[in-house]
Amino acid sequence: MAILFIDHGVVGGIGSLGLALREYAQRIVTLPGNDLASAVKVSLEEIHGVVVGDAPCSVRLTDDSHRSSMSIVAEAHNLKIPIIGLGFGALVIAKALGSAIDELNPPEAGWTNMTTSPTSRGDALLTGVPWTLAVPLWSCQCIGSAGPSMKSPGMRSLASTPRQKFAMFACGISTYGITAHIEWTTGAAEAAIQSARSEQITHWREGAALNSATCQRIAKKIFESVTLSLMPVDRVNVGVARDLHH
Fold first, then answer.
1. What is the four-CA torsion angle of 211, 212, 217, 218, rounded to 10 degrees?
2. Class assignment of domain 2-230?
3. What is the C-alpha radius of gyration for the chain, rounded to an integer number of angstroms?
4. What is the pLDDT of residues 76-103, one digit of tens each?
5. Residue 159's beta-bridge partner residues?
6. Which residues touch 66 (CB under 8 Å, ≥6 apart)?
């Protein structure tokens, strides 16, 4: 059994989630996110978890893009194989399951407060997570929330930011997405600072200095829950979700 990582080409890849998975002896296999030929050959019979990775900030999710990634996500969700999406990967999951994707213009970027929702209380992945946490964001798109038809059936918001209702969400009992970049390592956070516009660099640096250590500590706690509760190594029954106590 293995974890399937759908890699959309961002520097840093699976980030600190990968560190947590490997620490607990998880095997990770990587699939390029827009490789249609390889995606056709993917069998989920030996997969006990799917991680959908982030993409460079220039990449947009449209009706015609990333169909291979969305196809795998939809199949895994139907089989109740646990899934988690990071950044752009969260949008891929939401769109694959029927949500609209809206543009954020200007982007929501920088260190921003993310506030957990009442529905997140007691969620297996968020045990010990504070109600408000400063997180790094670089979101050019978001999950639509204009009306009931704009989001996937069964999707619930676990956390929001000032401009994103579904900054963290769950759909069913084993599909999750988070648009904030809690997976960023120190190196990835520094790369974001270097990529920021000149007028934003001070904000990025100050935010990292004040909040990076706390964010990384909380992210480690969340990702340990992913590897121990959501996608445990002993989950050998294909297509059967491990019990999560909400």
1. 60
2. alpha beta
3. 17
4. 999 999 999 999 999 999 999 999 999 9
5. 116, 168
6. 8, 33, 34, 92
